[in-house]
Each structure stands twice: as C-alpha cells, then as structure tokens.
Amino acid sequence: MSDDYEYQHEVEELEGKSATAARLFDVRRIIGGLFVIYGIIVTIAGITVSDAGLKKAENININLWTGVSMLVLGLLFLLWMKLRPLPVPHPAPEQGPDRPGPGDAEG
Q1: Which of the pair, 69 or 82, is modelled with greater confidence?
Q2: What is the tally of structural domains in the chain?
Q3: Which of 13, 51, 68, 99 lies 20 to 30 angstroms, CA to CA, from 78?
C-alpha cells in the first residue's frame, strides 16, 4: 500500500514539474523575448545612424523603424502570453473496475 502512495506522490510531482516546464518554454515567451532584444539593438542602431547612412537609404531611417516595429511585436507576444497563459493540464480520470475505459464495450 505504501508503494502505491509513493508512486502516486511521484506522479503528482512529475505532473507539477511538467506544467511548470510547459509554461517556462512557451514559444510566445521565446519569440517575444527575442524580438524585444533584437528590437532594442536595431533601435539603438537607428538612433545612432550617421548622415551618410541616412543618405544611402534616401533619408529614411530604416533601422529605427524596423527596431521599433520589432520591439512592438515582441511586447505584443509577451502581452499575449500574460493575458492568455497556458492552461494547467489536468490528469486523466483513473479507470477503475466500475468505470469502463475508452475501448471497453458496454453491455
């Protein structure tokens, strides 16, 4: 009986770790974080552009506009993750002798 309790406790612990890992490696966090980091870098490059660089681009500060756009997109991904977090997975109900399984035929 204690073995059953020990296994059940281990299973519950692993399910908790799995849910935490799923939230930690949410693709929205990774994509949003990368866009924010690259957006900051490109925005700084756009702010510190020289006059010669602006003339090459016909006086359009491409780095500034691209950096700000990337920054906004990254923040939108992070906001989306914050407003709509991943649902916590619920364990499947246990099958007992009185509960038929999905493949069992009833009567």
Answers
A1: 69
A2: 1
A3: 13
